[in-house]
Amino acid sequence: MILPALSILIVIAYIDWKQRRIPNSWLIVLAGWAACYAALSPAISLDLIVINAAIGLALTLPGFLKGVIGGGDVKLMLAISPLWPPIQLLLVFSTGILSLLLLMSSAHFISKMSLITAHYPASTLSATSLQRGLPLGSAVAMGAIFISLFNFIS
User: Fold this and answer.
1) Residue 54 contacts by C-beta under 8 Å, 6 or more apart in sequence?
2) What are the pLDDT digits (tens) for 115-134?
3) In sequence order, what are the residues at sequence separation of 6 or more whose Cβ sits closer than 8 angstroms to the Cβ of residue 18?
4) What residues contact 141, with CB distance under 8 A and at least 6 apart?
5) Contact between 9 and 26 (Cβ < 8 Å)
6) Which of 52, 138, 152 lies closest to 95, judged by CA?
7) CA distances (Å), 154 to each of 3, 76, 149, 150, in order?
8) Model pLDDT for residues 83-120, shown as the tens digit of each residue
9) What's the longest Cα–Cα distance across the chain?
């Protein structure tokens, strides 16, 4: 049941990576799917959704108030709050942030290598990507994929 949500998150991640913004239309689609999933899943309760919404706000609202992340990132965390139990939601967020930072730092390292930059000077994974801000939507999507794969395997 999580597969459609992952597909939507991948689209959001791509848009966020390219434009550093998350369209409300995609957030509405994701929130609608998450609401349907929560309504049909016996494991999801209103208490769990409220706890996850509080976690999502605690993780993103301070960054939004400081101007570090955008409003779409806050809305994204609220939209995915019905999809996982609280511990897994924290894992989705932290795994996503760590994997994105690893990807971007690797890209920065590779861009410094003269052999690679001679052939690919306009790489989409350049050091300027990090200067435009951290694409939290991309991070959340990567974390969701990793956690969902881990849940599927175990």
Assistant:
1) none
2) 555 555 555 555 555 556 67
3) none
4) 6, 9, 10, 12, 13, 96
5) no
6) 138
7) 17, 27, 9, 6
8) 999 999 999 999 999 988 888 788 777 777 755 555 55
9) 55
